[in-house]
């Protein structure tokens, strides 16, 4: 019986999706004649929830959800731009016999499933918490705490892998051990 838990952020931790997300949003914003600068996106948007950064980009706020829905569609078209964290996936395979494995992300459920399926890891993770499952985004620890509760595993027996500042804050707030991914 497994009594340890490993939780993984998606974007920037398991996969480098900065180009995937950039091009998906760039294509989605073209309809509104908005040119999205890649440097701006990486610095100010990537890793943040769309409700935080899209209002800064779009004058007309009534189309935020439409753009986000289009982004989910364009995301799949750009998955070939993603890079997986090879070393982390090797560690995950070693952890699998002793640890429950779950993804906790503010990405959409559909995009999370899309990328995990694209790389052939459908059966690796036992559980996923995505933006549709939470009411508070990182740095709030809600998603991580929900996953810990789901498995009935304490913070002392949990390790969280994160890369972003807000994600690290959320992970630390749980009391679990935190492994920070700087780059891969």
Read across the widest sheet, the strand sequence of neighbours is 5-4-1-6-7
Our measurement of the CA-to-CA distance between the termini, rounded to an integer number of angstroms, reads 32 Å
Number of strands: 7
Radius of gyration: 16 Å
Describe this structure in words.
With 184 residues, this protein is of the alpha/beta class. It has eight helices and seven strands. It has helices spanning 18-29, 38-44, 50-57, 64-77, 86-95, 109-118, 142-151, 165-173; strands spanning 4-8, 15-16, 83-84, 99-104, 127-129, 158-162, 177-180. Strands 5-4-1-6-7 form a five-stranded parallel beta sheet, with helices on one face. Strand 6 (158-162), helix 8 (165-173) and strand 7 form a beta-alpha-beta unit. Helix 1 (18-29) packs across helix 4 (64-77). The longest helix has 14 residues, at 64-77. It starts with a strand and ends with a strand.
């Amino acid at each position: 019986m497994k009594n340890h838990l490993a939780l993984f952020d998606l974007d920037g931790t398991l996969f480098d999706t900065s180009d995937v997300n950039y091009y998906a949003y760039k294509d989605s914003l073209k309809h509104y004649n908005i040119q999205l600068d890649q440097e701006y996106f990486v610095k100010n948007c990537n890793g943040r929830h769309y409700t935080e950064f899209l209002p800064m980009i779009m004058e007309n706020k009534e189309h935020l959800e439409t753009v986000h829905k289009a982004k989910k569609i364009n995301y799949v078209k750009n998955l070939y731009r993603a890079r997986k964290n090879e070393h982390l996936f090797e560690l995950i395979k070693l952890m699998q016999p002793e640890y429950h494995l779950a993804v906790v992300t503010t990405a959409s459920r559909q995009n999370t499933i899309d990328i995990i399926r694209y790389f052939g890891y459908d059966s690796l993770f036992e559980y996923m918490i995505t933006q549709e499952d939470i009411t508070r985004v990182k740095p709030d620890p809600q998603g991580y705490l929900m996953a810990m509760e789901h498995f009935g595993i304490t913070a002392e027996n949990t390790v969280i892998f994160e890369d972003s500042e807000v994600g690290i804050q959320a992970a630390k707030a749980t009391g679990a051990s935190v492994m920070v991914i700087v780059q891969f």
